[in-house]
Amino acid sequence: MAQKKMYLTGGIGAIKQWEGFGIDCFLPSGTDEGGCYSETCASIGVMMLAERLLQIDLDAKYADIMELCFYNAGSIGMLDDGSKFTYANQLASSDTDLSRRADWFKCACCPPNVARLLGYIGGHLWTSSSDEKKNTAEINVHTYASAVLSIPVGRHTVQLEQKTDWPWDGNIQFELKSLEAITTTIRLRIPGWAKDRTISPEFDRYASKVTKGYLTLPPEYLKTNLSFQLNITLKPRFISPHPYTNQNIIALARGPIIYCVEDFDNPWSLVLDTECEITETDVNSAEPYKELTVRDGATLLKVPESSGPYLAHNKNNFAKVDI
């Protein structure tokens, strides 16, 4: 499913008629091409499946998809102020379907599903276990957000706090509160798209390595470093589709966020040079975010192209959108 039937936003279910899959790699960008239904509820279902798979197989490929769905095909389902919603989520607007947000739907399964997702999102951040007899605790951090986890170990408690502005900033600060007698192990997910990451204080002498996408911080390290930080470099990158999709396009991403362009800010026909300069701008809104501006490196574009997060598109509700 993830390799042949999923959109780069984490959306699934290309066919509108039965809200389901087509043949392998049939992933049109708009509904006028016969696909890209990508219902909000479907991506939330993928998140729920990924969370359960993580409980039986600690592999970051599931957490990568869970996070991708949350920040893109899932979160797009509700505007940041909670006033408007989407049902189907095209990658590109069509002449007959402008991807407008609605106040409500006759069949309103998606809005309450988004609300429910936000209510239990803490359960997707991490999994944990403890053993009172052995006096041990283990924490697997799947994604990053400012939050606190408390684990009972007998009559005592192990607490781990995250402080971060993820997904816009790749710096995550951790504070562990644990009795020295409790042996604690923490595993941090390193996203598959991440090229550079650092841990401080430095811990190379502990010979820890990344296993299935998780970096293990052993008890020996944590006993002397209750405060530590992970920094994952967030750089804009281009993503191209599988050639079997026959989609001659390219997309722009930064961290787990997929970006899109709107004709409100740009001409509808755009050509990108993947070697071009990309600049980042902080945008202050109800949910501050990073805007990316692409400048041509080979005079392919006459003007800079401005792009914003896919999850926040069409606030004006009259713009065409394209990834």
Automatic annotation (TrEMBL):
Residues 139-219 form the Non-reducing end beta-L-arabinofuranosidase-like GH127 middle domain. Residues 239-279 form the Non-reducing end beta-L-arabinofuranosidase-like GH127 C-terminal domain. Residues 1-120 form the Non-reducing end beta-L-arabinofuranosidase-like GH127 catalytic domain. It comes from the Eukaryota. Signal peptide: none annotated. PANTHER family: DUF1680 DOMAIN PROTEIN (AFU_ORTHOLOGUE AFUA_1G08910) (PTHR43465:SF2). This is Glycoside hydrolase family 127 protein.
